[in-house]
Design a protein that fits this description.
Number of strands: 4
Radius of gyration: 31 Å
CATH architecture: 2-Layer Sandwich
Number of helices: 1
Low-confidence stretches: none
CATH superfamily: GSPII I/J protein-like
CATH class: Alpha Beta
Distance between the termini: 115 Å
């Protein structure tokens, strides 16, 4: 008795399977690229906020170290991280009569349109050395 030869099944992928695999890979790569782009933007914002925080802390510290503490608004420019930072300091009376409230706003542009950070600190009204 003769055994009929087994039918050989075609090997490899069909065109439809290849197209579906390419669509899945394409969608995954788009999602990965989008996530990478968001990460870069968030890193840049974090870097700007960190530098602006340091600028605000420097302004508050310089005010505290000054021999006179005039209430009112002052402004200035500080270079940090290869960028000019523009700050406004408002020194006003706090609820405690011995303290001044120091509100600092740090901007990335000279026109004070791009507020990066606002920070508050306190200082004694007069320097006690």
């Amino acid at each position: 008795m003769k055994i009929p030869p087994l039918k050989q099944l075609p090997r490899g992928f069909t065109l439809l399977e290849v197209l579906i695999a390419m669509v899945v890979i394409g969608i995954a790569l788009l999602a990965l690229a989008s996530t990478g782009s968001k990460q870069v933007n968030q890193l840049q914002q974090l870097q700007q906020q960190t530098l602006a925080h340091w600028v605000a802390q420097n302004v508050i510290t310089e005010f505290r170290l000054a021999s006179i503490h005039p209430p009112g608004e002052t402004s200035g420019i500080e270079k940090m991280g290869q960028q000019n930072w523009y700050w406004l300091l408002n020194a006003a009376a706090a609820s405690d009569p011995l303290l001044l409230r120091l509100d600092v706003q740090v901007y990335a542009d000279a026109g004070h349109q791009q507020l990066v950070l606002a920070e508050t600190g306190f200082s004694l009204r007069e320097n006690r050395r």
